[in-house]
Structure formats: structure tokens, C-alpha cells
């Protein structure tokens, strides 16, 4: 195991440890590691794949095409979410409290808050707290 000297997280390989070390802001990547810098916004990356994905945000390139409706996406993840929400009826995720089914874990976790007293979203003006970001958004836009 390879452990981070800054936060003690352990990794199976030195490569994974090196990738992890890049997230620590005070850590400088060694000269033997290559960095990739975006010429548009000067953001830097330690992996070429992340750099290539980032560069696409500055272009109109949409290489991930939906086979069903031909809409293009800049990232594979967005294509997968599109297919799940627009072209699928599967609902694999289930609420632990009431059994209601959802298409993804983000939706089920947001739903599960209705069964609890947690209110993690607060209005900056009046400090009223809400269970979902959507409820906060509606509150902020109604009270303008």
C-alpha cells in the first residue's frame, strides 16, 4: 500500500497515490510527472484524459452521440444520464424508507430527505432552511 503523507489515505499503486497527491493544493507535482495546461483558461491537469475532456468545454465538439435521437454530448457521462432519463424506464434505485423507485442515486438521496429533518440548503438573506436545492431556489425567486 502507498499512503499519502498529507492525509494518510492509502492506495494500491504508486500511480494512484500520485494522482491523489495532485488534489492537495500545496503539493507540487514532481518534474518527472507531466502537467497539461489549458491555453484558454490556464487550468492545469495531471492526466491527459482529464485535459482532453476539459478542452472540449471550450469547443463545440460533441463526440458522444445518442444512438436513439442523435443529440451530441461533450462528455460520456452526460450521454449516459441523457439515455437514462430520456430513453429508459428503468428505476434501479429505491428509497430506504418508503420503497419508491428512482432512476439514479442522486434523485433517491434527495427524495430520502423528505423522510428526515435534515435541511442542508439555507437562504443567504433570511437563513430559512430547505430540504432540497429546488425548494431553496423557489423560495429565493419568489421573495425577490
From TrEMBL:
PROSITE patterns: ZINC_FINGER_C2H2_1, ZINC_FINGER_C2H2_2. SUPFAM superfamilies: beta-beta-alpha zinc fingers. It holds the Pfam family zf-C2H2. GO terms for molecular function: zinc ion binding. Residues 2-24, 36-63, 64-92, 93-120 form the C2H2-type domain. The keyword Ribosomal protein does not apply. It comes from the Eukaryota. The keyword Metal-binding applies. This is C2H2-type domain-containing protein. The gene is 20215778.
